[in-house]
Write the C-alpha cells for this entry.
Amino acid sequence: MNVISKAADENEKNEVKSSDSFAAFVSLNRYFTLTESAKPSLKQAEVAVQFLCQMYGAKNEDELFQRGDSDLIATFNEVKAKIMADVSLEQ
C-alpha cells in the first residue's frame, strides 16, 4: 500500500469517527429535548451516556477515562450527572 492510499484510508477512518460523533451529538440533543417534557427511563439515560462517550470519540466510559484528560473527564462527569439526575425511577 502506498503512502497516498494509507493517508486516504486514515482520512476515511477519521471521517467515520467524526460522523459517529456528530450522530451521537444529534441523539444527545434529542435526549435533552425529551427531558424537557418527560422524565426519561434509566435505559434511555444509559443510552444517552453511551452517546456522550461516542461524542467524545470513545466506545465506552473506560476508554474515555483511559485517555487521562482531566478536563474531558470532568466535563463528561458533569454531563453524565445531569443525564442521570433526570431519570424517572418508575419503570
